[in-house]
Amino acid sequence: MTDLRPWIGFNPNDPEDREMLERIHAEHERRDREAVEAFLRDRDEREAEKVRATAEAKRRAAIEARRREQGIWETPFVPTSAANLIHGAIDRCLRFGQNALIIGSPGVGKTRALEEAVRRSSTLEGPSVGLVTVSSVMGASTMAVFEEVAPHLGVRPAYSIAATLKRLCREACFAPVMLFDEAQNLTLRSARELLTISEQARIQMVFVGNDEVIKLVSSSQAAIQQIARRLPIREEIDCILETDADLIASRYDVEGMDAFRLCRDLASARHADGLGKVLPVARALARERQSKMVHAVDIRAALMTFPHFQRDLEGPRASPAPQVKRQSSLKRLPRKR
Questions:
Q1: DSSP for residue 96
Q2: pLDDT > 80? residue 68
Q3: Which H or E element spans position 6?
Q4: Spatial strand order in the sheet of 233-237
Q5: Rounded-to-integer distance, Cα 197 and Cα 26, Å
Q6: What separation, in Å, do the N-terminal and C-terminal C-alpha atoms of the chain show?
């Protein structure tokens, strides 16, 4: 016969033994209850994790689908003459240890060329570069400029401008070519301090901006003339070439002499920026009519969404200047009778 007593010497008539037995049963019930609750929690967490994973997968799929849909609007990098000039200046700075100043008209593709240089740097296809876009707010503060430059050089900013400058000059452990887009927003003090960092830390710098940046180096003041002396490599980009327009047009599957001629006219009026805005719309319109190629009719239809571009293209041909009667300053003499 099996002994069903919970322990040896258990006396069911003893109140203390019965109380101990009740405590044991209560403890077993508590442990069972906690085990069930833990199992339910784990099951709920696994189900919630599955729901979260499913939602995350759907979100990523939606993002990828959106990116594929928006891919038609992305401007591909095209090695135009302006881009080749900028990349060539970067290579020369690295090769000869000099700083550069690149001045270009708005819309010729300076920023896109700088972004391509950063992409090549990240994929080890080109020299190591760091890009800082100088906004008007940042350019007014030397400390703000230093805080943007410091991570590229592996330096942590200090509590003051002087201390941060000292760290940048002494502790820069990386040697990229620093690129400054919209350099016309830099103050004279910021430009001088950056060039000081360049000389002491052996960091080459390329300042890229529009015609306003000339004011930093074209003054009779001695301090600014020192900056001019420290920027020996200089390039100017006034426009893009017709070959550049043809190259950009071919990237958007443009076909036909009329279409290429229209792209050249648009590039002459609005540079690469105009092509980068109009041609994606033209390509979308061409695909809507089941055409793999972009023709002149698609470009003209796309120009309808950019009236200011169309006005630049048409010029005086579409809206001739009004003919004004010239009034002579000489008074007509009375006829002799």
A1: H
A2: no
A3: none
A4: 129-133, 177-181, 205-209, 100-104, 233-237
A5: 75
A6: 162
pLDDT(327) > 60: no
**φ/ψ of residue 100, rounded to 5:** -135, 155
Handedness of CA 185, 188, 191, 193 (dihedral sign): negative
Pairwise CA distance, residues 156 & 143, whole Å: 12
| Other CB atoms within 10 A of residue 124 CB | 8
Tokens of 197: 């960092």
Decide: 118 and 129 in contact? Cβ < 8 Å: yes
According to DSSP, residue 290 is labeled T
* DSSP assigned state of 320: P
pLDDT score at 4: 66
Structure-token pair, residue 277:
């805005």
Q: How many CA atoms lie within 13 A of 3 on its CB side?
A: 7
The interaxial angle of helices 110-122 and 81-96, nearest 10 deg, is: 50
Query: Is 65 in contact with 172 (CB distance < 8 Å)?
Result: no
